Structure formats: C-alpha cells, structure tokens
Amino acid sequence: MAAERGARRLLSTSSFWLYCLLLLGRRAPGAAAARSGSAPQSPGASIRTFTPFYFLVEPVDTLSVRGSSVILNCSAYSEPSPKIEWKKDGTFLNLVSDDRRQLLPDGSLFISNVVHSKHNKPDEGYYQCVATVESLGTIVSRTAKLTVAGLPRFTSQPEPSSVYAGNSAILNCEVNADLVPFVRWEQNRQPLLLDDRVIKLPSGTLVISNATEGDGGLYRCVVESGGPPKYSDEAELKVLPDPEVTSNLVFLKQPSPLVRVIGQDVVLPCVASGLPTPAIKWMKNEEALDTESSERLVLLSGGSLEISDVTEDDAGTYFCIADNGNETIEAQAELTVQAQPEFLKQPTNIYAHESMDIIFECEVTGKPTPTVKWVKNGDMVIPSDYFKIVKEHNLQVLGLVKSDEGFYQCIAENDVGNAQAGAQLIILEHAPATTGPLPSAPRDVVASLVSTRFIKLTWRTPASDPHGDNLTYSVFYTKEGIARERVENTSCPGEMQVTIQNLMPATVYIFRVMAQNKHGSGESSAPLRVETQPEVQLPGPAPNIRAYAVSPTSITVMWETPLSGNGEIQNYKLYYMEKGTDKEQDVDVSSHSYTVNGLKKYTEYSFRVVAYNKHGPGVSTQDVAVRTLSDVPSAAPQNLSLEVRNSKSIMIHWQPPAPATQNGQITGYKIRYRKASRKSDVTETLVSGTQLSQLIEGLDRGTEYNFRVAALTINGTGPATDWLSAETFESDLDETRVPEVPSSLHVRPLVTSIVVSWTPPENQNIVVRGYAIGYGIGSPHAQTIKVDYKQRYYTIENLDPSSHYVITLKAFNNVGEGIPLYESAVTRPHTDTSEVDLFVINAPYTPVPDPTPMMPPVGVQASILSHDTIRITWADNSLPKHQKITDSRYYTVRWKTNIPANTKYKNANATTLSYLVTGLKPNTLYEFSVMVTKGRRSSTWSMTAHGTTFELVPTSPPKDVTVVSKEGKPKTIIVNWQPPSEANGKITGYIIYYSTDVNAEIHDWVIEPVVGNRLTHQIQELTLDTPYYFKIQARNSKGMGPMSEAVQFRTPKADSSDKMPNDQASGSGGKGSRLPDLGSDYKPPMSGSNSPHGSPTSPLDSNMLLVIIVSVGVITIVVVVIIAVFCTRRTTSHQKKKRAACKSVNGSHKYKGNSKDVKPPDLWIHHERLELKPIDKSPDPNPIMTDTPIPRNSQDITPVDNSMDSNIHQRRNSYRGHESEDSMSTLAGRRGMRPKMMMPFDSQPPQQSVRNTPSTDTMPASSSQTCCTDHQDPEGATSSSYLASSQEEDSGQSLPTAHVRPSHPLKSFAVPAIPPPGPPTYDPALPSTPLLSQQALNHHIHSVKTASIGTLGRSRPPMPVVVPSAPEVQETTRMLEDSESSYEPDELTKEMAHLEGLMKDLNAITTA
C-alpha cells in the first residue's frame, strides 16, 4: 500500500500531467461508450440501431378459486413479433402437451379448471412471461403470483350473544386471508343484506350498529369458494330492550396493526358498547381526524375508520376514542404503508466496442427497500470479476466481448411486488482504416513499476513514427488464461505510459500496446507477461478503541496495540469527522491516546485509528462516536412577540435559539418582565423546554410592561432577548367577534407612493389587534400589509406612476378580519413635480420605465352551452362605456379542471369580449380567468369564473362484467359489473341484455332494467345447462351508453329435483296486462303423462279426459262445417266488420308489464275442431319445449298506414323453438307466468309456412284476404306473439315472431275461416303478423296466424277474428261443396249475425 501511494505521488508530481490535463477527454477513436443516442460515428462504419423490444402488458398478481379459469395477461412488442413462453417458479412450461394450460394469440396464459388440493397445488406459484426474438435477444416480465384460495377453515366462529337496543354488536367469522372475499352472512338461513348500519369488516366480522328488534335471530357465515359452501356454527343474537341504566364502556373490536400498499383501501376496526351509547372519534399522531369533510376518510357503521387510496402520509399511529359522556376509553394501532418498487432511473441503451468497460445504471425506490438483480437475455447475471454490482444497483461489465451483446434488465423486488426495466447493448465493429500509413507496433514495452494492485507500463514510439507526437495508445490486458480482454487508453497524444489499477495481488497479467493515428489503429506489440507483487504484511486494526468527552470542546480517544502488527508499529493516524459532514481530518499520534481540542459544543463526532508499519497503513478500526459536553446557550431565543389578551394579561410567544447555538438540550426558558416605569422591580418565571408560549396574568390595567426571555440548559442560562414592550388594555374588551369597519379611510396619492390614514372603529368595546391594508392595480388583493393596532397611517411605497390603485382597510383580532373599507386613488404622473424636492434637467440618460400593468377584466362569466362547450364573457373597465375595442389589445383566456389535480392550464387568445371554449369533458367543473394585453402592458389574471359542462351519454361501457351462479339456486345467476370509466354524468341505471344466441339482433335480446347505481343484479328461473350471453349498458340523464362485450355463462346442469314437473313456471301473473299466448308452449293433458308430483294419473282421470276430448271433437267438427259454409259467401258488410275487428290488435314490447289489464273471454275454442273447453295450467311438461335451447328470430311489424308517425313503431322480441317449461322465466316470461297462449287473427297478408309436427305434416297455408288493407288506424300498433317450432327444422320460410311477457292468466278464443282457393301469395309491402302452430293430442295440427287482442290505453270488447287454417285437401273440398249447396246469402247473413251475438254473449260472461 505504501508503494502504491508513493507511485501515485510520483505520477502526480510530473509536469507532463499538466499538459495532459489540457487535452483531457481526447481518446482513441471509438474508445468510449455512447448511451442511448447515436453510435460513435466513424467514416465508413456501418451503424446498427437499437431495436424497440418491450412488454405492452405484464402479468399481475391474481387470486383464483378451485375449478375456475384464470388468464395471466402478457403482450410484447417487437419487429419481428417475439415468441412468447411462460415460466412457473423459474421453470419453462410445456404448453404443447398441456390440456389445461394454453397460450393465447396475444401471448397471455389461459389456465382452465384450476386444480388445488391440500397435497396437490400444480397451478399455484409465481409466473413469468418470457419474450424472445431470434438473433436479437430475450426479455422477461415481472413475476406474478397466482394464489388459489384454499379450503375454508374458520379460525373463529360466531358465538351466541345479546345486545341492548340501539347499541352495537359483532359476530366473528375469521377465515384464512385468501378466502375473505368469498365470505357472506345469513340471518335465519336467508342471505343477509348489508347496508350503512350492518357492515362486514375485511376480516369477515359482522358489525351491527344501532341494533333493532329485527336484528335478532340465528346468524352464520358462509364461505363460497368454488366448491360446496362451508357453513360456520349458528349463533343466536338476542336484542334486549333498553334497560335505561348506565353500563361500562367496553371495546367489542379494537384496531390492530396493519400493513397496506400505496393505493389500497384500509379499514381500522373499532366497535364499542355501553350505555349510554358511545360516540366514536379518531385521532392520528395526536391530531383529530375530520371524517365529515374528508373524501378519503369515512366513519363506518359502529365506528370503524375506512381510508381509501392509502398514501405514505397515512402511515402513523391511529387512536380510536369512545366517549358516552360518562366514560372515555381509547385503543390504538399502527398503520404501516408500503410501496412497490419504482424506478427513479432506468437503464439506457449503450453502444460500445470490444474490450471496453460499461456501466448500466439503475436507481430504484420502494418500501421496504427493494433488492436489485440483473438479467441478460432472460438469464440471471452472476457477479464475477468481470460482471460487478457497483453503487448498490448498477451493473458494470468489464472487458466487453461480442457475446455480451443483448438485452439487460434491472429487476427490483421487495415484499410488495417487483418491477423490471431493460436496455440494449450493441457491440460495434471498429471502423476500417482510411487510406494512409498506419503506425507500427510500439517498441520496448516494459513494466516500470509493479505493485500488489497496480502496474505502470512504459514504451517507446513505433519505428514508423519516431516522434509520435500525434499518436495515442491503447493498452490491452487480461488475466492469464482468460479470454476476456480489457483496455486502458492514454489520456493525451504523445503520452507513452499508463498505470493499470485495481489488479489482484500475486496474479499474472498479459499486456499489449497498440498505437493509433488519424488513419486508424496500427500493429499490436508483442504480449508482455507481468505478475503483481504478493500482498504485504500490514498491521491489523487497533483493538479496544474508546472515546469520551472531556469538555464542551474536547474529546479524548484511547486504543491498544494491534494484535497482528506484522512488525514494529511506527505510528498511528487518528481520523475524526463531525457527524453529518463528509470532511475527515487526521492527526499523527505516536502513543495510544490523544485529546482532540477545538471541537464544537454539544456536537457528535466519529473517530477511527489506523496503525502504520514499514509496509504502510494497516486496517482501520470501526468508527466510534461520542458527543462533546453541553454548555450554556450562546444565543437568545428567536422571534419574541407579545399579544395583549385583556386588561390584566399578556401572551408571550418565542422560538428556540438556532440549533448551532443551543449547546445542549434546552431544559427550560426564563421569562423576565417589569413595568416600564419601574425598571428595577423585575419578576421572573420559568417554563419547560418544550413550551414556546406563556400567559402572564395579574397585570395592571392600562400599563406598559417590558418582557425578555432566555434559554436554559443543565449548564445554566444563556443570553436573553432584548426588552419588548406591550401595554395592557384600559378595560376588558370583547374578542368573541371580529372588529367593526374602521370609521374613516383617507388616501393621498403621490407619484410612486400613497399615504393611507384612518380612524379606528366607532365601537371601541371590541378588541382590535391590528389593521390589514390591501392594495393593487384594479384589485385590492394583489398585496397585503399588516400594521399594529396603535398605528393610524401608513405609506405604501414603490408604486407605479399614473396608475389606478384600489385600497382596502380591515381591522382584525384573533377571531378574524372585520368588514373592509374601500378607497381608490390614481398615482400622479412622472411630470408632476409638486412632491419632488430636486430633479435633474437634461439628464444624460433616462431609463425606459417598465410598462405599467393594465387593469384586469371584470365580470367574468361562464355560460354553459353543451357538454363540451362553454362561452366566456367579460367586461374591460379600461375601455369606454360602450365597450368597443378600437386599439390592438387582445385577451387571453385560460382554463383548467381540478381533476386530476395536476392538470395544466390551457390558453387561447381573443380580440372580442367573449370566447367560445370547446373540446371540454362532459360533466366536468372548469375554472376560467382572463387577462388583457396591450403592447408591452398586460394585466394580472381576473377573478375566476366556474362552470360545469352538461352531461353526455356515457361513452364507454360498464367494466368488469362477471356472471356467477347463485349457490343453492342453479336457475338464478348474479351479474356484477363496475361503472363505465367515461360515465359523463351521474349514472341513473343500467340495462342488462341477455340471450342464448350471441349473434342475434340486439332487439331480440331480453332486457332486465336496473334502476339507480347498483352494481349487481339477480336474474332468476333460467334454463339449466344452457349457455347465456350477457351485455350491460349504462344510462344517465342524457341517454344510453355503449354496450359491454358479451360475457358467456352456462347455467349448471339440472339435478334430479330440477327435472320434476312441479318445477314448471306457475300461473301467477305479474303486474300489467300482457295477453297470455298459449301457442305451442301449451299442451293439453295427455293420457299417461306424469302428474305434478311425478306419479301416473289415475284411470278415472284418464277416462274423464277421454270423454272430454271426444265431446269437444264432435262439437268442433259441427262448428267447422257451419263456418266453412257461410265464410265462402261473406258480404261487404262482413268485410267492414272484419276491418273493425283489426283495430283491437294490441302491440307488445320486451319490457315487462307495460300494458293494461284486459279481461278476455275465459274459454278457448279450438279452431280445427271447434272444441270448447276451459284453459288450465297443464301439469304435463311439453316435450317440444324441453328438447333444445331456444333459437330466436324477430321481425319488426310495420303498420299499413304509411302516414302514421314513426314513433308508434315498437320493437318486437320473439323466440322460436323449444324451451324447458321449468325455466320459462328468462326467455319466455319468467317469475312464474301462466302458459303462453295464441290468439288467431286473420288481419295479416298471406304467408307460406311448411311445418312438421309430431303427428302429421301440415299442408301449405293458403292465402286469405286481409281485413286491414283498406283502413288506417291512428292508434294502431303492431301485434306480436310467441312462435313455437316443431321438433324438426322448418322446411319452409322462417316465420317472424315477437317476444311477449304475459303477466295475466288470460284465455281467448277465435273462429276459424275457410281460406279461398288459389295459390298462396306473398306481398312484402303489407304488414305481417306471425303464424303460430298449435298442438292437441292425437289430432292433425295446422299452422294458424295469431295475434293478441287488447287495446292501447282503453278497454274494447273482443271482436270476432277470422284466421285461415290449413286443413287437409279432402276436408277442404268437402267443406266448400257443402257450403255451396246448403246455404243462401240471406241465410249466411243471419247465421253470421247469430254467431257474432253468441260471441258477444260469451265475452260478456267471461268478463263479468
């Protein structure tokens, strides 16, 4: 070490280095690394550029449950596209043969059916995304932890308890932390709804405050984590009447120490019980918390404190104080706030040449302090001789080789999380030599000085250039046997020596030297092999070092001889340094002790000792710290002030002496005071060292006193302050209110000043402690000066000449400032010399005065025009009264919003007295201000105006839509979501759309409205084992926003109980008057079908059904024959009646219960067989409805009257196909509706349909004339009905249908008509009504047109309805022949009138 120090001194004393310093920084070409910018430029060099390669999305920590699916997101950017792989716990996953894990196209990892058990946890662990680009490199993402909620285990369960009415109660239910989100409570085995009074703490504990009688019952908590629910023990809570006696305060739940991460929410639980009922308040670090006005602090039910969006400032000790007037108790807990790693400085891309040394810099912060590791191309960098971690976090790479090229990443990690940042290293090729001679090899390379840790090399100039003044040199060296070579360049041209530092003792190194000229690098010298010296024997550390203070300015240090002196100790060197500084001083010592004098009083110093022998300095001791002794303060307290409280007391305030002058711990202060008239009579009082004010009482009225204060230490009293005077009041004045307005204010303007004078308020009984003078150009709020209460005038200096100033005067006391008094004045111009005693004529130089400010605009107003536009208007007092702008002035408008808080101002210029600000955000509060500029003169900003833009429809859909099945109710699902990020107003509700067909038109989806800002909704009675698709749309006062993406959910499979017939929807209707349409969803009872209880029907029931069916069949045949005869000869009057019948058609809509109640006939007349029978709910499940999920189609029905306004058009929703009758609710009118019902109606144009039924094939439907083609109904609305399809696919044209939610058990009837002969026609220009098929047992069933009968807003009697049917050809021919031969026109007219009367009678009977 001594040799090394000597060599350094020898080199530093050389005059040659003075010359080198002037040329410092000139290096050999390409020798320095270039960061992040461009590569070093060399003629003819091919420059490679850095390739953008980074992660767009990185995986995040995720909590899952068994059996669910998980997506770990990852996406990387590069050109070409990178290859994505995944690591779990540091090992690459083989996703090719994995049937549960698969790689998504964007690089994300999808895990289906998460596996987790007590002894098998294959999915839980740490995942990392790895992106690779061939020939470029590899980068790794941050690691993300996948946690799978374990099996439920209760660490505490609810226990029976009682609570007095109005008091608080808690029920414990604590589970392992990862299951807390899955905990819910039940009361009397029914889900418990939480509200502001009943809350669940984050631990799972239930808190009930202000208990009522309804809170009594049996409670248990439930954990639902994917598997079967886990129930806790049941505990009974008894609510006792108020005993009207006091009871002691006790904590039911106290806060406990918590650790949270910045940005998280935290709840500090605190629940107390006692009589009277206690009130809870919170304090933090001895300061009361204001939970009422704070947006982040909320006092929850029972007294718990919730802090949202935690910051580092929230860390500290929190006190919960319960007080009921008779007693006070408190509890405390520490909140620790941690922060994830964050980069203060990220690595930057580097260009370099081989053999160079580089450093990647990386600076991170976090709490706890993060650890840093480095990764190169995805592999961990292990520190070695050539890869070193320097300055805690930076990576140094020595002696670069080509293989060092690639991507380096700094990964910071602490207990909270981890983060990564990377940079690219490119190794450049040396530029080819330009045309010209290159230097030969340097000659006579020798090691002129060899030490243990450094070697000095010297050489002579190359033979090709004997002078060598313009040559620079590079020294390449490496350890023997190591391929990695480092380089050291000379500092300036012509230098022919280099000292290589930081070598290892007793190690062989290989050196070679190369010269460079302006054409390039020349030949290399022959390798030189040199071995460093072995380590010398130096002294060890001096043991038993100790130090103690002798006086306030001296410290004695003592030590002993080193145990390993390695020879005779020649002397010691004592190093010492003041704590907190970096300047170390030393002194040579020959003995084993030394006293250091001249130190600062009561200051901490550190000391260390180094022993020296003949080889040099040894190992230093550890630092030892000691503080000099204290002394009396050397300075007086600061900022002494006096405040007269009343006629007998004065309050004294002061600050401690400066820290450097305290000379010890301040133990107290000595206050001395006396009457100004009797200076010899001094009174003293002592206060503690922490006290910085004192009230002196018992003084005389109207008397002036002098005060001074001195600081004390244990050593004595320091110097005192100067005397300060104050006079007590003559009488006790009122200070419970602010002073009144000063009685007068006078101003006298001068050229650059204004003299202000005033008189005190007329009411002398209120304390006045001083006066506040405000002044400014055009506004009195620019500057404020406060003066003593005794003062009656003041001169405002440094004003601008010829300027209009507004001045305000307010008296103030400790309560606040009083009412202001205003005055204005215009300072005199420069030419006014009335107040100038001396001025210079013909001055050689007159500086140009600064332009005086203009008066700011006034009356700024913001007028809201739309959701993104506000008009700003103002007035300019510097303009004439007509406010016309005739000069070149212009106005600058600025505006901003306070959300987020750091938003910058935006500016715009205007030449008129208004400006239209556009491009604003909807429903956002903005502030505006205006300034005026004329030439070089500008005003200050005006007073601000505020305006909130109008609301706009939401421009983003609701977020995070999730669908889960309700436990124990497989037909019920729960939809959860989050509000849209761009709500653009207050959300007033949501609309949930759901369907079994994701590709269906949106008006075919079922609608579920949600009122208010609720974020969850239940949908009941869905079809089991069926996939549903859900979309959500938010609305505010302006309308509907966009829909969310469709979310798929498959309902659970039915168990044995779900398949029972008694699971069918009940017939109880909801509110409204939807006309029930039985359609094909209704099926009469069948012989041998199951009863509602699942057992076969009795023989008696079967015989009765057979009798009814046969009887009805006979009646139907007779009626059909009669109808067929007279329908072939319908008169013109009958056509008009049919048109009138069409007006009774009523439309429907998808929303539930939006039509009026109508009581139709209570009988059903089967069209084909004229079968008259009551319609009851069928206990027989419809086999056609239970085969397949429900496919759907729809058609908007357009009225014939084209002149009608389009606002009467209504959307139609429909279904075709089959639906399980035990789940009619969702897609076919859920929540227990009656069987659907079809009304035949012949008011539509002919349509062709070929239907297959289980019993027979139907013939094509014939055409019939419509009754609605001639008239226009202004009240008309299109009709709709259900359409049920057969078990097979339609072979003909698909029929338009509309969805109806019947909510009343209505029955109807219709009379069939014989279709006229002729081929079917189809006119698309005419309105259409769906055709529905009906089924009856053991009969041929034909397609008929149906429509609901009702009115829009009023009741109408039922009208006869004629519907074309499609009987078999033989039957149709026979009926036509019979009708032609048996009836005359008059007879048909009578029969028709008779039939209409019969139908009216039936209607009257059923509606009675």
UniProtKB/TrEMBL annotation:
<dbReference type="InterPro" id="IPR013783">
    <property type="entry name" value="Ig-like_fold"/>
</dbReference>
<feature type="domain" description="Fibronectin type-III">
    <location>
        <begin position="856"/>
        <end position="952"/>
    </location>
</feature>
<keyword id="KW-1015">Disulfide bond</keyword>
<dbReference type="InterPro" id="IPR010560">
    <property type="entry name" value="Neogenin_C"/>
</dbReference>
<feature type="compositionally biased region" description="Polar residues">
    <location>
        <begin position="1244"/>
        <end position="1269"/>
    </location>
</feature>
<comment type="similarity">
    <text>Belongs to the immunoglobulin superfamily. DCC family.</text>
</comment>
<dbReference type="InterPro" id="IPR003599">
    <property type="entry name" value="Ig_sub"/>
</dbReference>
<dbReference type="InterPro" id="IPR013098">
    <property type="entry name" value="Ig_I-set"/>
</dbReference>
<dbReference type="Pfam" id="PF07679">
    <property type="entry name" value="I-set"/>
</dbReference>
<feature type="domain" description="Ig-like">
    <location>
        <begin position="243"/>
        <end position="336"/>
    </location>
</feature>
<dbReference type="InterPro" id="IPR036116">
    <property type="entry name" value="FN3_sf"/>
</dbReference>
<keyword id="KW-1003">Cell membrane</keyword>
<dbReference type="InterPro" id="IPR007110">
    <property type="entry name" value="Ig-like_dom"/>
</dbReference>
<comment type="function">
    <text>Multi-functional cell surface receptor regulating cell adhesion in many diverse developmental processes, including neural tube and mammary gland formation, myogenesis and angiogenesis. Receptor for members of the BMP, netrin, and repulsive guidance molecule (RGM) families. Netrin-Neogenin interactions result in a chemoattractive axon guidance response and cell-cell adhesion, the interaction between NEO1/Neogenin and RGMa and RGMb induces a chemorepulsive response.</text>
</comment>
<feature type="domain" description="Ig-like">
    <location>
        <begin position="52"/>
        <end position="147"/>
    </location>
</feature>
<feature type="transmembrane region" description="Helical">
    <location>
        <begin position="1104"/>
        <end position="1128"/>
    </location>
</feature>
<keyword id="KW-0393">Immunoglobulin domain</keyword>
<feature type="domain" description="Fibronectin type-III">
    <location>
        <begin position="541"/>
        <end position="631"/>
    </location>
</feature>
<keyword id="KW-0472">Membrane</keyword>
<dbReference type="GO" id="GO:0098609">
    <property type="term" value="P:cell-cell adhesion"/>
</dbReference>
<feature type="compositionally biased region" description="Pro residues">
    <location>
        <begin position="1313"/>
        <end position="1322"/>
    </location>
</feature>
<feature type="domain" description="Ig-like">
    <location>
        <begin position="152"/>
        <end position="238"/>
    </location>
</feature>
<feature type="domain" description="Fibronectin type-III">
    <location>
        <begin position="636"/>
        <end position="731"/>
    </location>
</feature>
<feature type="domain" description="Fibronectin type-III">
    <location>
        <begin position="441"/>
        <end position="535"/>
    </location>
</feature>
<dbReference type="Pfam" id="PF00041">
    <property type="entry name" value="fn3"/>
</dbReference>
<dbReference type="InterPro" id="IPR036179">
    <property type="entry name" value="Ig-like_dom_sf"/>
</dbReference>
<feature type="compositionally biased region" description="Polar residues">
    <location>
        <begin position="1087"/>
        <end position="1097"/>
    </location>
</feature>
<keyword id="KW-0130">Cell adhesion</keyword>
<dbReference type="Pfam" id="PF13927">
    <property type="entry name" value="Ig_3"/>
</dbReference>
<keyword id="KW-1133">Transmembrane helix</keyword>
<feature type="signal peptide">
    <location>
        <begin position="1"/>
        <end position="33"/>
    </location>
</feature>
<feature type="compositionally biased region" description="Basic and acidic residues">
    <location>
        <begin position="1052"/>
        <end position="1061"/>
    </location>
</feature>
<dbReference type="Pfam" id="PF06583">
    <property type="entry name" value="Neogenin_C"/>
</dbReference>
<protein>
    <recommendedName>
        <fullName>Neogenin</fullName>
    </recommendedName>
</protein>
<feature type="compositionally biased region" description="Polar residues">
    <location>
        <begin position="1191"/>
        <end position="1207"/>
    </location>
</feature>
<feature type="compositionally biased region" description="Polar residues">
    <location>
        <begin position="1277"/>
        <end position="1296"/>
    </location>
</feature>
<keyword id="KW-0325">Glycoprotein</keyword>
<feature type="domain" description="Ig-like">
    <location>
        <begin position="341"/>
        <end position="426"/>
    </location>
</feature>
<dbReference type="GO" id="GO:0005886">
    <property type="term" value="C:plasma membrane"/>
</dbReference>
<keyword id="KW-0677">Repeat</keyword>
<dbReference type="InterPro" id="IPR003961">
    <property type="entry name" value="FN3_dom"/>
</dbReference>
<feature type="region of interest" description="Disordered">
    <location>
        <begin position="1174"/>
        <end position="1326"/>
    </location>
</feature>
